[in-house]
Each structure stands twice: as C-alpha cells, then as structure tokens.
Amino acid sequence: MARILLTGRPGCGKTTAVRETVERLGPAIEVAGFYTEELRRAGRRIGFDVVTVDGRRGPLARAGAPGPPVGRYGVDLESFDRVGVAELEAGLSAGADLLVVDEIGKMELLSDRFVSALERLFDPAEDHVVLGTILRGRHPKADWLRSQSGVEIIEVTEANRDALPRRLAERIGPATSDAGGS
C-alpha cells in the first residue's frame, strides 16, 4: 500500500509529477481520480478547473464568481462534487488500482462530500493506493490527513521534481500489484 502526497510551493511541479507518474504507469493499471488545472487569460490566472484522469472537466473556481470564497475566487462546489468527487467515489467503489487526488487544498476541502471520500481513501483499515497533492500550509483537515498512518509526504523541489515521476512509478507499480491490481 502506498499513500503518497506531494507538497511544495505553488508552481513547483506537483501536478506535473503526478500526471507524469500516471503516464509512466500506463494502461496496465486502473486509475481513477482528478487533477486541478489553472486557467489563464492574457497571462492572468482567472480560475481553476477539475479534470478527471479520463478528461472530463468542470469548473472548480473562478475569479469573482459566486460560491464560497477562497481568496478572490468563488468555488463551484456542485461542479466539483459532480465531476471530481464522483470520479473518486466511483474509483473507490470499483476498486481502482490507483486513486489520484490533485489536489487536497482549501477550495476542495470546502466540500463535505470530498472530505468524506478522503476519510474512506485514508482509512487505515483499507488498502487504497493513493497519489495526490496537498497544500503546504496548515489546515485542520489537511493536518489530519498528514497525520494518518501510512501517509508519506514528499516535498517537491527543483532538485527532485524531474526524477520524481520515475521513482514514484517504480514504487506505486509494485504496490498496485500487492493491492490486488492488474
């Protein structure tokens, strides 16, 4: 079992490392979960989308939009639950070999449904293989996840980010086989 959460400064390469790890693992394992993608217009960040590993997408947050505020963004919890959280729940139910959670951040943690899915993902009695990213700062729910048995936190830096996908794929590949994957 591997439960690996990447952390680090914004823009340090956490999401890229997760995506490249999944690509390295290839079609031999069943992957479910989501990524968050920054949206820019004319070089300026205007929001974020939630994108499932198979490419379905929906808005997560937009600058000035209605919804619970995080900084200058309004969070679209209904869209996040319908796209990202539903994908995680389906992966949990289907017994996916790897569950991807990018990211566990302030916006996502506003969703009660997401927090419930995280409790299932990180339940010590379960044997889920998880690769995700987690905010670097303090947050009660994120702090709880970091303290769970079997969770490994890796800080992404300029020095390690290029080698991480290969190292993570080597570790997760055998872990998925041990967990009953293909």
TrEMBL record:
Protein name: NTPase
Keywords, alphabetical: ATP-binding, Hydrolase, Nucleotide-binding
Nucleotide-binding is among the record's keywords: yes
Annotated InterPro entries: Nuc-triphosphatase_THEP1, P-loop_NTPase
Example GO molecular function: ATP binding
Top-rank taxon, per record: Bacteria
Record bears the keyword ATP-binding: yes
Pfam hit, one: NTPase_1
